[in-house]
Design a protein that fits this description.
- The complex is a heterodimer of chains A (112) and B (111).
- Chain A has 112 residues and is an all-beta fold.
- Chain A contains no helices and 11 strands.
- In chain A, the strands form 2 sheets. In chain A, strands 2, 4, 5, 6, 9, 10 and 11 form a 7-stranded mixed beta sheet that branches. A 4-stranded antiparallel beta sheet of chain A has the order 1-3-8-7, with no helix packed on it.
- In chain B, a hairpin with a 5-residue loop joins strand 6 and strand 7.
- Classes of the chains: A mainly beta (112), B mainly beta (111).
Amino acid sequence: NAGVTQTPKFQVLKTGQSMTLQCAQDMNHEYMSWYRQDPGMGLRLIHYSVGAGITDQGEVPNGYNVSRSTTEDFPLRLLSAAPSQTSVYFCASSALENYGYTFGSGTRLTVV
Amino acid sequence: LAKTTQPISMDSYEGQEVNITCSHNNIATNDYITWYQQFPSQGPRFIIQGYKTKVTNEVASLFIPADRKSSTLSLPRVSLSDTAVYYCLVGRNTGRRALTFGSGTRLQVQP
């Protein structure tokens, strides 16, 4: 049972490049979310999904796209990377609407 | 979004009980209160969740008064390995009250 798997663990991008952060969970969880955490700060919600085919915006969605074609996968796309998107990105999943999340180990992204 | 207020930092010694209080005055009827622990360079880890009164598990206890406008996470007999940031969240996993994290409480446990 791998839990929540995020790839890559580290990534350096040039301004304007695009990329996809991968997130996969093997717990058959319906609820999945993407957060970003800037140095010394709490986590901010980017996008979330309540099931395959259903996504919605969180607190800081600009510059990011998501899709949920399967229950297991919830990729996060950076459309045109900017230095302000330098952060650690966490993916999380939960079985129920009112239950705690299981988090991945994060992707550390640097945009230069 | 539900707002929470918790102390920025706390210090304790090994073996002591630590209580971290979180204020959430605008909690909604359907909101749950959830606490997470985060170590450096790791994702947050779920500790405990409650709706009202008291909840206890093998790691911590959560005390919620009747008005639910605050909650207290209690860590019994802390050790050095409990040094971490603790986040209090109010809401649900979806919708307008999707969970948002504040800045958390940085707990430092000394020998």
